[in-house]
Amino acid sequence: MDELREKIRMFARERDWEKFHTPKNLAIGLSVEASELLEIFTWLSPEESATLPQATQTQVEEEIGDILIYLLNFCDKLGIDPVGCAHRKLEINGAKYPVNKAYGSAKKYSL
What we know:
This protein is an all-alpha fold. Helix content is about 75%, strand content about 0%. It has helices at about 1-15, 25-40, 45-50, 55-80, 80-95, 100. α2 runs antiparallel to α4. The radius of gyration is 18 Å and the shape is globular. It starts with a helix and ends in a 9-residue tail after the last helix. The model has no long low-confidence stretch (mean pLDDT about 95).
């Protein structure tokens, strides 16, 4: 993760793009890239979305790369550890959605 983060920094630095990489701009860019991933799946059936042709799979992989780059750049600018955030959020979600209440159900409920 650290190596990738450094590559992202160097990529922006070499192009003098750091001045554009504010948290606001990176958050917007992250949302745009996530929307581009979503666009690929528009109108696909659940079955089609699970068995993508190779060209579509490649598009998905490229969008995932863009999303990860934006997310890591965003976290870097704000001094946030994204892996730590994910671990903490899993703990929160584990308490919010205990297995005995959430197992096999996508319904929302109040504790």
